[in-house]
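README, section 4: Worked example with a bound small molecule

Sections 1 through 3 covered apo chains. Here we extend the same pipeline to holo records, where the ligand is supplied as SMILES alongside the sequence. The molecule in this example is pyridoxal-5'-phosphate. Nothing else about the input changes; the structure line simply encodes the ligand pose together with the chain.
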Amino acid sequence: MKPSNIQSRPAHIAHRTRPFQESVIREMTRLGDESGAVNLSQGLPDMEPPQEVLEAALQAIRSGDNQYTFPFGSPEFRAAIAQKYASYNAIHADPDTDITVTCGVSEAIIAVILALTEPGDEVILFEPWYENYVPGCLMAGVSPRFVSLHEPDYMFDPDELRSAFNQKTRLVIINTPHNPTGRVFSLQELEAIASLCREFGVIAVTDEIYEYILFEGRRHISIGSLESMADRTVTISGLGKSYAVTGWRIGWTVACPALSLPIRKVHDYLTVCAPAPFQTAGITALSLPETYYVQMREKYLTGRTILLDALTAAGFTFRQPEGAYYVMADFSSLNWDQKKYYRPEWSLDRNFAEFIARDIGVAVVPGSSFYISGIQGSNSVRFNFAKKEETLREAARRLLHFNPS
Ligand SMILES: Cc1ncc(COP(=O)(O)O)c(C=O)c1O
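The generated complex, written as structure tokens:
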């Protein structure tokens, strides 16, 4: 923009935007691109989406699905979502009243926080957390309250969880399988959370975007399927990760009518509706046979093996992920030049992320960006293994630099 000589007062910037920064994950993708690194930072898969799902999207565009749908989603897509919940999640959802299709899980989370909290309320988050939960809380004027998933197992302490609940608590946000740790919450853990939700009248908001990405035969359990949780749970998922279409921006919420109604109102005024042709293609995605999910898990398992072997050889330590496609890896034992790109305002892990992107050629996400203190997680970085075998083998080759022997 051209500089102007006309004097004017600076524009006001809303206070609600001040406590949070631009996404660190997307900043790391930019750093990776700039330094020619293999991008294992942002959580986007580089494999092809299923061919029939791509065809369904093209067909939908050609045959006229190019206008607004109902704000809460096309009836056919909601019916397909309801069917999936009955067969995979043991949740009965009425497509007319209980399902709201959103622009990705990200919008769903923010719409739910805006719809179900008042300024001054509290929302419980497990720490480390996926990065849009905190800005979502802050934009709604609610205070996040953190409960640690303790290293090395990333389990929570039930007493700590109980002490986070109080009269101001409105929501507890769960994410299973979990980004960034790869934890899959057990039935016992979910029962403990559910019991506190019942006692304190709190809504469980559960982000299950990685629900199909599970290893070693683990089972996905939706907290909304537990006894008397149907009326106090908002279950959220989407197409992005399960079908490698993160750019399509299709997510949804499943909740009883009393909770869905305000979510639908907020969603309508935020975005009107999710992209119409991709809702239609979503019907094809949700009707893929079980073999699709078996093969997908096998692909991710191969990716996990390649990456974890390379990390072990390079000297990282980590807890093997049980689900999702990330691993938090501790770099404390590695030899690296801490002075090379040093900036005093950066944490150790941010410095390490710069080093590994520029000198090793692998882009990662600094571990501390998943914590509020900026101190926890600062010996770790997050790697994403949702990549083609050749991409991961190239990353593995580059990581050998840490251990040339
Ligand atoms: C836990 C979690 N929730 C939500 C999202 C974003 O989902 P969407 O692309 O559907 O907005 C991500 C993306 O990485 C994620 O890891």
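What to look for in the output: The radius of gyration is 21 Å. The mean pLDDT is 95.

Section 5 describes how to batch many such records.
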